[in-house]
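Input sequence (123 aa), recorded before submission:
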Amino acid sequence: MKFYSLIDRTPHDGDYCVIKEPLTTSNERKMLSVFPQPQFYHQGDSGSGFLYHPSVVQWALVPQHVKYKRAPWSSEYWGDDLPSRDCDCLVCTQRNDIVRIARFDARRQQFLGHTDVIAFAII
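Predicted structure, token format:
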């Protein structure tokens, strides 16, 4: 998944995006954190940005659900391996056409909070 700097490139009005914001840890080290739910980008008379997320520094477009476009998705049903490490992933489920973010637990070999994942893309 390709992330863009918000300073260098902005999404179009209405784009559904994965966003990264700065996170300060207990030892004051700054790192980027993926927000756990994709957000819409808006442009209007009062400004533009991700609503309630003024500190976004990076963004990536959320791809269409696997029902509509196969790329960039991977799936066990196509013979692809599950991720080999714990990671955040975009997931498509059988239940609906909404692309969501889920944490993959490599030890348990499952996407936490989603039992009906049909395709995934590592963030």
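Checked by second reader. The mean pLDDT is 90.
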